[in-house]
Hints:
Helix 1 packs antiparallel against helix 2. The mean pLDDT is 81. It is elongated, with a radius of gyration of 36 Å. The chain has helices spanning 25-44, 52-74, 109-117, 120-128, 154-164, 187-190; strands at 5-11, 14-20, 76-82, 89-95, 103-104, 107-108, 130-136, 140-141, 172-177, 198-202, 211-219, 231-238, 250-251, 254-255. The protein is of the alpha/beta class.
Amino acid sequence: MTRPVYNGVMDNNSTFDIEFLTSEPWLVGLALVVLAGLTAYLYYRTEPPIPIYLRLILIVLRSIAVLAIILVLAEPIIQFSKIFDRKPRGAILIDRSQSMDREESGKSRIARVDSLFQGAEYLKLADSADLDIFYFGANFKTDSKEVEATETAIGSSLLELQKRQQSVQYDFGLLFSDGRSNSGPPPLDVANVVGMPVHTINMSQQSNRFDIALTDVEVNPVLFVGQKSEIKVKVEWVGAGEQKFRVEASRDRRSID
C-alpha cells in the first residue's frame, strides 16, 4: 500500500515533507475517529455530573493522549530542507618555478599570467565566484615569495589542494603553468583524487621551439674510493630536431665527467 506523503513549500528556498511509515494508514485514521468520539462521549455524560470547565479540561487532556498514541502508530517522519545560495568557489594555482621567468616574445610567462588577471574575462570570473590563489614550485604556498622555484611539482600541488578540500570545498580549479612537471608524482596519477575539475592553462609559447629539461637523476648515495659509480640522467625535450646537447657532471664549477 502506498504510504501517504505530504509535500509543502515554505518559500522559494525551503521545503518540508511529512511521510507516514505505517503500512495501514486507514486503520490509524479510523482509530483516531473512534477514540476521539469515545472521549467526547465519556466526558459528555458522567455520573455524577461534573462542572463544565472540568469536563472540558478532561476532554482536552484525553484528546492529547489519544493524538499522541495515533502519532506513534502512524510513525511520521518530518523532513525539512533549505537551499542556501552561494557563489561557486575556485582555486587558482600559479606556477612560480624558474621556468616561468623565461621570456618569450619580449614577455615572461609569469608576466603573461599577470596580464590575464587584468583582463575582462578574469575580472568577470572574480565577480561571480570566490577565488583563492595559491603558488607552487617545489612546494605549495599562499605567498609567492615562499615558493622554492628550483622544481615544478604539479602532482604534489594537486595533492596539497586535495587536503585543503577537507576544510574548504572548491567547485573548480585553474592551473597556470608552462606544463613541465619535474618533481613529485605525475599529475595525471593524482588528478582523479582532487575532487573537483581542474582546468589547465598553458603559459608556454615554445611548443614548436627547442626546449629541454633535466627531469631525473639517479645516483648511488654511497661511493667508494677507486671504484666507478654510475649516474643515470633523464632528459626530456621538445622541438630538438637535429640539435645536440652535452650533459656534464660538475662540482664547484669543476667538471667531473
